[in-house]
Amino acid sequence: MIKDLVDISKQVVRDLRNRFAHAPLILLYHRVFDLPSDPHLLSITKAHFAEHLEILRRHTRPMLLREMVRALRDNNVPRRAIAVTFDDGYADNLYNAKPLLERYDVPATIYVTSGYVDASREFFHDKLEGMFLQPGKLPQLLRLTIAGHTHHWDLGDDARYSEDAYQRNRAWHILKVENPTARHSVYRSLCQLFYTLQDDDRREALEALATWAGTKLSCRPTYRALEPEEVRMLTNGGLVEVGSHTMTHPVLSALPCAQQRDEIQQSKTVLEEMLGRPVMSFAYPYGTRSDYTAETVSLVREAGYDHACSNFEGLVQQDTDPWQLPRFLVRDWDAETFSRQLRKWRAL
Asked: Which strand (E) or helix (H) includes residue 101?
């Protein structure tokens, strides 16, 4: 009797392993650029991205996401199927990522925040990085009113930030517990405050910060989003597909239904007019389970999208909701670390 139970348990384990071994998965990238400072860990170097693509081409079956979704519905997904995606729509997706995707013949879906296209503005976390984590001098005291609440910070001696201090701390990122300077502490606090703000409030707060810092809200060339012609260039050749990432990259769960609908539908309309073709794929900004709701999913379906991506880990299974596709976030890993992660995710 005990032996029978042990044999049954072993068989269950084998069945589960077989079910999840080499199951389809979706990878999430943001940028391909050799950034000197990347506090949100959104960028991967060109050398590492090339290594990733070589591994994917050699050991997996890269697919365009919409083709994976179609195969999933037909119950005909190949073993080791992998889809590559990018969020946000940085210009380096065209100039750094696409040439490498073409070299290794790996398709990708790039989700564009359409309100940032040709807007000459940086995403708020990039603008805050430029203000607080780059060398220079700032006023010591900061008083900022955000969404009706006034906040105070004192930079102390870190109001002046030397080149040497920047070089010592430029590898810092938000996953680290400690803040090496008061500037890093303020940066972390402001990122948290800006996270749930609506676009108008973000712009107002950034304008106030720029006035305080004595700068203008210009856009650094290496941090800009795509321009309309560049969005069209992404799709040349058919290897890259463009998807929607809302108009202004808000936390959708923090918006009322009408504003969510506008963000979701208007982005689709703008991109379709830009491209002259349907845009059928969507990605929730930030994308964790708390960043959107069941109502949001319904709005995405009503807008006419065929599928949508989230940002929590998981393999793509037959019963996976195509409007809440899980993805694995990729960091700036070398080839060995990336291979180890793929094995951990049961892709290899």
From this structure: helix 98-104
Tokens 């208007």 map to which residue? 266
Q: What is the pLDDT of residues 46-77, one digit of tens each?
A: 999 999 999 999 999 999 999 999 999 999 99
Burial letters for 304-329: b for 16+ Cβ neighbours within 10 Å, e otherwise? ebbbbbbbeebbbeeebebbbbbbbe
Do residues 129 and 220 touch, judged by C-beta distance below 8 A? no
Superfamily of domain 23-120+227-344: Glycoside hydrolase/deacetylase (3.20.20.370)
CA neighbor of 68 nearest in space, from 340, 311, 309, 344 = 309
φ, ψ of residue 87 in degrees (nearest 5): -110, 150
Strand duo 160-161 + 136-137: pairing? antiparallel
Q: Which of 100, 80, 128 is nearest to 31 (CA)?
A: 100
Using an 8 Å Cβ cutoff, are 94 and 225 in contact? Answer: no
Cβ atoms of 64 and 241 closer than 8 Å: yes
17 exposure class (CB count in 10 Å sphere: 0-12, 13-18, 19+): exposed
Rg over CA atoms, the chain: 22
Contacts of 67 (CB under 8 A, 6+ apart): 107
Residue boundaries of the structural domains of the chain: 23-120+227-344, 124-218
Higher pLDDT, 118 or 106: 106
**Cβ proximity of 307 and 322 under 8 Å:** yes
Residues 168-190 pLDDT 10s = 999 999 999 999 999 999 999 99
Question: Dihedrals φ, ψ of 60, to 5°?
Answer: -130, 180
In this structure, the number of other CB atoms found within 10 A of the CB of residue 292 comes to 26
Of 279, 286, 284, 280, the C-alpha closest to 294 is 284
Confidence check: pLDDT of 21 > 80:
no
Which H helix or E strand runs over 270? helix 257-275
